[in-house]
Amino acid sequence: MPLTFSKQMFNIILFGPPGSGKGTQSQKLIEKYGLKHLSTGDLLRSEIVSQTPLGLEARNFMDKGQLVPDEVVIGMISSALETNPTVSGFLFDGFPRTPAQAEALDKLLQLKKTCIAVMLALDVTEEELVKRLLNRGQSSGRADDTNESVIRSRIEEYQAKTMAVADYYNAYNKVVHLKGEGSVEEIFESLCEEIDKRKQ
Ligand code: B4P
Asked: Model pTM?
């Protein structure tokens, strides 16, 4: 029987295009608010490092800048929710990335008697995204950060498949858009302001 979470859980989605600062800001937010960080990108990269069948399948998509199939990431998130029943809330980073993932997440959270409190969306121009990712590619060793055409494909995937996720949550009045350019600290402060308004 699935475990039920406490009703007081506070769950956030950090949303934005590749390179918008989701991973960077997530590290600071989990530290401040004690949330459990669930990054599908990190989970997939750790499957790749361990050379699991899931990782080998995912790598084919990630190296080309394409999204990994929905059923793979939904399965990963479902097990992560099951294995963390006592946390005070989740910070979803890079998930959901399609409307089908958003619907699946809502159903999983409903089963646990909890929901998404807010989606915080970071807005950054395309040229700044490309610049940041190429810059990270110099040290990250990530194949998807070193080639500009792969980076542009990731941005196209975001525009074609992921942007609709904001419409999905907008219908429930749960989306807040924030400027994702400026210093890491300034952006962190604006995220905290929005969280503090909603968290008791
Ligand atoms: P992710 O791991 O989610 O990575 P990302 O979107 O590329 O990066 P993120 O947005 O977290 O990076 P950050 O801005 O922090 O995805 C990788 C791949 O995994 C996807 O392409 C896809 O194939 C697959 N995948 C993951 N989740 C999936 C899902 N749900 N469904 C299907 N496929 C999925 O950092 C970027 C750089 O910017 C860093 O170098 C950072 O230092 C810098 N930076 C951050 N903030 C800055 C600021 N304010 N100013 C200047 N630089 C800044």
From this structure: 0.94
